User: Fold this.
Amino acid sequence: MRCTQTDVVLYSATKTHTPMKIGIVGLKQSGKTTIFNALTRMEAATGEYSSARNDPNIAIVTVTDPRVARLSDLYHPKKTTYATLECMDFCGIHSTNGGERKEVFSTADHALMKSADALALVVRNFHDPIVSATRGEPDPLADLSGIVSELILSDMILVETRLERIEHQMNRGMKSLELDIERRALEKVSAFLDEGDLNTPPALTPEEQKAIRGLRLLSLKPLLVVLNSDEETFGRNSEIIANIMRTFPCVEFAGQFEMELARLEDSDAAAFMEDMGITASARNRLTMASYALLGCISFFTVGPDEVRAWTIHKGDSAVDAAAAIHSDIARGFIRAECFAYDDLVDHGSERALKDKGLIRLEGKSYRITDGDILTIRFNV
Ligand SMILES: Nc1nc2c(ncn2[C@@H]2O[C@H](COP(=O)(O)OP(=O)(O)OP(=O)(O)O)[C@@H](O)[C@H]2O)c(=O)[nH]1
Ligand SMILES: [Mg+2]
Assistant:
């Protein structure tokens, strides 16, 4: 970590940074917990009775960006820190096919689900005699439409309740511009939910978006589909994937296989993957896809103490990057010394980059590019 400071050395381990959250949702027995275990290397119980207790599983996933390992090879730091995501696994949704029940999710699950920055929708595409006996043969497209209906239904309940409340307030003479904007936004969202086509999100003005942000509607979150295939068919489901990708980004994942792979030591897993002719674990692809879905990019800090990946959003500035490290560094920001990961790999060393004039000094408003390597100068 190299954050240089002119007055006091103040960088501390106190983090201001909280990881982005991804929620895993799907119909019952679609393999959500299996995927959660594969991603987080946890050992949460899977199978028929596993979710009877109703508690969600929550854990941190490492975003195994190969660039971090490469930087670590170059700098030989004492510590290497990957970016992380928080992953939440909920108990399965009972599809109601459009809604005989009032509440789709339990209140606790719904509150957590609303707190997710994005949702991964798991659809079952594996053959398991026990699961098939209770839930029928796999039908990923039908399952996906079932999940989407439930998300929409849950949002409809929230939107209608809020619209009724606003109506009530207005009837009692409580008129204001804010309420008007919120009502207009809710009406647009309600029409979108009635239509049910997630490809055409409602056209909300920035004020309207702000007015309904607090509702944290599930169907307006970034959504990704995880096609949970068995090993036998994995890699041969292009038609289903193409169908899903008309509406959603999609990653195919062999949940059971990846969960077993995640239980192995890294070196054993690498040898096993080589034997199977697999170059990159689907686990890496899924975490990287989730990262992209969340609109996240990484910048790196490098040095003899630590090589570290930090998460910010696409479009964030150098001062936002400083804030991801520590609010004091953002407050005292002077400038950022910056070079690109690709340039470093191409030229082999910082010295070579200096000679070629590829190390820049950037100000507060500089827009960070994914893969920037920063040294932030600050003064507190
Ligand atoms: N063959 C195969 N079986 C799988 C796969 N993923 C999950 N299973 C099996 O499917 C069953 C259900 O898996 P879970 O991961 O518990 O599914 P879930 O969606 O978390 O289930 P609920 O929480 O009850 O909704 C278990 O018996 C798993 O072993 C897979 O990729 N391939
Ligand atoms: Mg489960």
In short: DSSP finds 15 helices and 13 strands in the chain.
